[in-house]
Amino acid sequence: MPSQRLNPNPLSGVLRLLLSRETHLVLGVLTVIAALFCGFDALKTRPSDGTVWLLGRPELEVLDVVPRSHGDPTPLRRGDKIVGIGNHIVSSPQMAARQLSRQRPGSRVPYLVKRDGQQIKLIVPLTSTRVRISEYALNVALAMVYLLIGFGVYLRSGHDRAVGLFFVLCLLFTLFFVTNLNQVSYYLGAIITQNIGAFARFMLPAVFLNFFLVFPRKKITLTSHPFLAPLLFVLPMMFYFRFSLDQFLGSEGAKIHATSWLILGMYYVLGLAALMHGYLSYRNPLMRERVRILTFGTMAGVIPYLIFKIGMEELSLNAELARLGVIPLVAIPISFGYCVARYQVMHIDLMLKKRVTYALLVSLIWIGYLGGAWWLGGKILAFLPGSSSLEAAGVALAVAAALWPFRTQVQRALDNRFYHSRDNMTTLIQEFTREIPRFIQRDDLLQMVGDRLCGVLQLPGMGAYLATTEDNEMIFQLRGRIGESNLTPDPSPQSETESGEDRLLLGNNPSAQVAYPEKLQIESLAQTLELQEEPLWIEAGESLEDESKEAITREQSELRARHREQLYLIKNGIQLLIPLIAQERLLGLIALPSRPGEDGYQVHELQLLTIVAGQVALQLENSRLYEEEVAKGKLEEEMAMARRIQSRLLPGTLPSIDGVEIQAVNISSKQVSGDYYDLIEREDGKLGIIIADVSGKGMPASLLASNLQAAMRAQCDTCTSPAEVLERINRQMHASTDPQHFATLFLAIFDPAERRFLYSSGGHNAPVVLRADGSIQLLEAGGLPLGAFDFGTYEEDEISLEEGDLVFLYTDGLTETKDPDDEDDFGEERLNDLLRDQQRNNVSTLFDQVHLRLKEFSGREDADDDITMIGLKISATEKVALAEGNR
Amino acid sequence: MKWIFWVLAIALVLIGMDYMLGDNHKKQPFSENSQAITLYEDGLQDLFAFRLSASVTKFEKALEVDPSFAEASIALTGAYGLLGKQDEFTAALAQADSLTELISDPRRRMVAQLRINKHPDTTSHSQRDSLFKRLSSEAPENIFVLKAQVDKAQEGNDMDKAEKVLRQILEVDPNYADSYNMLGYLELRRGNYDQAIEHMQKYAFLSPGSANPYDSLGDILRVTGRYDEAEQQYKHALKIQPDFFHSVIKLGRIYLLRGQLKVGMGIINKVRAEVTGTRFVMEIDQRIINTYWDAGLDEELRPAIERYIHQHPKSYACPYYRAVSLAHQGRLDQSHALMDSMLAERRTSEEYRDSPRMRLYTEKTSLTFEALVSDLTDTPAGRVKAWQKVVALVSEKTPFHDQWKERHLLAAALLDAGQPGTSLDILEPMLLVNRNLINPLILAVECNLALERPDIARKFLDQLKWSLSRADKDLPTKKRASELETLVVAGEKVIAFDS
Questions:
Q1: Could you say which of B10, B170, B206 has the minimum Cβ distance to residue A397?
Q2: pLDDT tens for each residue of A645-668
Q3: Which of A219, A243, A472, B384 is such that its CA lies 20 to 30 A from the CA of B257?
């Protein structure tokens, strides 16, 4: 089934680009520029006649008159058509704005106005568009809180959808605040500001809702319907376009209508509902605690906004209480900031250590850089003729670019001075990336990584555990204690842990005691680690209920187990678990004790530990795969060797005896077994026939077979009694091999002249003698398998063979061949029937038929076990000489 | 660090663009001397604001600083022209002509020539037309060229074309105040008085330090009979610019129109003394003659005409005044001979051929003379016919408010011919525009009495009395109003008796 990833959505590229870190940073920079622009515009002293105009019309009609809080009221009225301002005829809003900008706030300017069909001249007192600094300062402060926390969170985080949305949310709130007090006016700057503010107002609810659909937990609906998130933005975008068009075309000018406000308000309500749902969906009280404050902070911020700002100001036009709806919004970034700093929500480090001095020095560098560029640019411009804006811009850019390397150098020096440890971490990560792949031995790897981490991060030590399974339960086996030199045995009486390990002190701090148990049984926490793939802080938390009561639900049971595990770890002095996860499998974990002093673990350290843990886990997985590969190679090599040995055991040519058809074959399986046969032509004209099956597979079996063959060759050449030979071999084998290594062997001495067949069997399958009349005789005389016991005695027997008789010797691979269902063996009966069926055929054809029938029976081409067969058929006078050897 | 090179490249592009678009490629100024340019531009502001003496001073200073500044010399010519100082005008024109020839840039030279040729004394109409056509295609947006187009359209009585070009000027420069002034007068000619006032208000709004807009606004108000408001505007103009004699004259006219001849004539005579030596004296003398004529003050009229003939012997109006005087003396043959001679000479002149305005003036003079003679000698029906010819001519060529005298005389002839109803048809549209026209009001009362409609006559009489409320006590018209009062009362009594 083809993967969905093979057919990516055409929009996915665009979406990926929109959600990329680069795009976010560009948005951030644009927001800062826009905020500076809006702030500058709001504080700029520009004249205003207190009217709202309809842009985009040839006639300059007064749409509305903004009530003035101070100064004389404007004599202009709604519906007036402004013909001239300040002794200039104005035929468009742009011209009017240009004329007005030439006036001075506070001055009284002549207006030529058409009112009720009459053209009249009015003297209009102008006020300033500048907002009240005292009121605006509050908005700027709120905007700064959002901007700083937004940037702080984003720059200290990895690339995460929720963080990206939170960042955009902060940017939009920043724009919302910096445009909050701006008066509507006709200046280009004010129009831009008005549009930026409107954009923020329209987009905020959508981003708000989207954020809380992915945070604190991504809603399953969004995962299964990825198009839903973009859809959220469709309505606000439409509202915004309507607003933009209304500025120029609408009969009432740009206005956010009540319907729009209602829908936008619904977005906020849904966002809050999503947040509350996310909060309540946490069963884990620890996780719930992590988002509790930000949940209530957000509610506390947004609900007043909904009531006072949207409900009362925008829908009821009662602006008196609007401020009550705006100020509480600051609760959102503050609660987020707190949770980020306290709980590292979204894996973010918001440590402010060193930041103030650092920020001051960075500011000084920038001031120096910009001041230097200004000064130098001014000097250069002084030498150049003319002073156009283009020329000034060109020179400014050139100077700024030329000075940039100096600024970068100074900044780098400062960064090194203040954040040397983080520079080290970057170096350390690079070092780990380089070094870790070189360690294939797990213990060496863990030791090296542990030593380096403890050294660089000055960790008090760590325990490295690898996951194994015992009785179907995952346990973690200690593979190394790192930093044990820092640990000293605790002399106090309570220094022994529950599991009996010695408790060790970190340095001389009695409060910091740690023990790394040989085995950790923390199944519940392991599940969390595997699921969350992030470091787990071990905190005791509160006991949920009376431990003595029996848990009723599975959740209660899990919580209780988890609580127990946490307590166990805490008692052992373990505060932090870093999971070693590769391919979504928890391979092990690193256990860290609490750090002495008040420093605790900083998030950048956790980030480093997490990164390194990921690399280590990957290498552990690689190590496992490598070992498997090596073992597999070794096995294959051994098999090949065994196969070679075995092939050498078999006779290269078969003896040729008049009146006797002799055939032998060895069919090898994948797993080389210990089958072998031998046909020894003795000097006295007799033929020694040996067929054996050594226990085991592969090289050991082959070696044993080789030894057996050597011994048999030595004994068989002159012997007269097969039983005696087997007795001797048995004793030798038992003396030289383990009891579990043994062999079944059938030895016969055939006298072709007399057609006498003397034999003895060492526990081997009884060969079959098929008489010419079709009767079957099994050659069963003998004893126990060779090498199994030292007390074995062997019988022997002799039979006479007549013309047409067949002696069929085989190993158990033949009769033990399984059918496809692995339920039934081929068995002796089928073999006997087959032999009878093929009685008239020669031995070679018989072997072919046996082979064919076995394949039919097993349904496979290859055999599970080696199959060896020897056939000896008495013919009249024909002398057969076939020596096929191995097939 | 590659981006630094990009930034440097952008910086270089910006500097390069600045060089490309910089001062080297800007059009050549009229003068290399910035002080001269400043003086010239300030002078133009004064000229457009009719602060003529101040503008002359600035143009002369500009020429001192840069003696080759042709445009300053042309503007100086215009200022002298408006001041009516003929000698200075002629000298300045000669200087402007010679300096214009020295301008190297051909287009600038042509524009300068066009500005010079605007003055009728300079070159022939054919030369002017040729220059005008060429510049209209080569420099269609040049303000001076556009203004020349307006002049040409107005001269040809093509008001639509004139308006179109004026609006074109406003597209080039929405604050070109003189366009609103011209548009205002254009609408006045069309009889769109409200729109004319709006334009003049814009003109005044654009030129708050200039007297002329208020003077123009006063003109429209005066035409529409809003004498008090017009008086305010003229006084406002004089407040801004006390030596703006145009407003003084018009203020005097307001008094004359109200029948306050003593005050009015006093003002006019005072102005006449102030503008002695300029061509405005002739215009004022004509105004004095017309005033006495309208008021029926024959004793004052004759000396005034004699003075005019004596002081302006070369004036076009002189033969006409002589002929009319002769006709009044009963010397009709001599009177006709003089007029025929004058008309023959006029009709063969180049100006008559080239200028529609001159043709109109000549033919109107001819027909008016015939009608006046007819008043003296003919039957009422003949008189009506003669005045109908005059009215037909002026109706076609002149604005409505400039036809009142001719229409009033036609109405009088119609009444004498026993056609009071037709006479009222002539009078009522005039009174609808300006209900304070004294002579038409008297005639309207008389027509209604003749039609035995004392009630309507009463309305006109009441309006007449209101219009004459501030008139001199010994004004003949006031005496006639008293007589009409008696007749209207009598008529009313008859009506009351009958009912």
A1: B10
A2: 777 778 878 888 888 889 898 887
A3: B384
